[in-house]
Amino acid sequence: MGAAEVQMFSMMLMLACGTTETPEEPAPTPTPEPVVEEPVVEEAPPADADNSAAVAKFNATCAPCHGETGLGDGAAAAALDPKPASFAEATFWAERDDAHIMKVIKEGGASVGKSPLMAPFANSFENDAEIEAIIAHMKSLQTG
Ligand code: HEC
Question: CA 133, CA 130: separation in Å to the nearest integer?
Fold first, then answer.
């Protein structure tokens, strides 16, 4: 056999093999039964009953000045003048509404005629709801 013939022969072999081989049919995938999910009726947003995320945030972000109990006695408070007011006092809350508190937290003390040492914290929060949760925690520090 000449070289050309050998080549031809092997090509024919390859072709022959190719045609005799029966490609394996993939097993038919069973059509899944549609899963009918019972709608979950949620009365309230996911429970965070103890407001723990807001407490952690307050302790990390605000407590250095305001103190974990909101008395205005955080580690950094010694250097502050004026000192942060005490969130524990009922009079603090009696004199200020939520809109005011929200504004102070977002835009800083200077936005309501208070000290600029109370910085704007809008960038520390994802949304108003997160700030409202912090305010709820601050109110819970009220002792009388
Ligand atoms: C660098 C220190 C510092 C940090 C941190 C800080 N504050 Fe203050 N904050 C102050 C000072 C000082 C005042 C008092 C301003 C004044 O009375 O003029 C104040 C006042 C306030 C007031 C009262 C404003 C008013 O009407 O009397 C609120 C509410 C408040 N801060 C919320 C927060 C919250 C919430 C955080 C955390 C997200 C926070 N602060 C973080 C220093 C700080």
Answer: 5
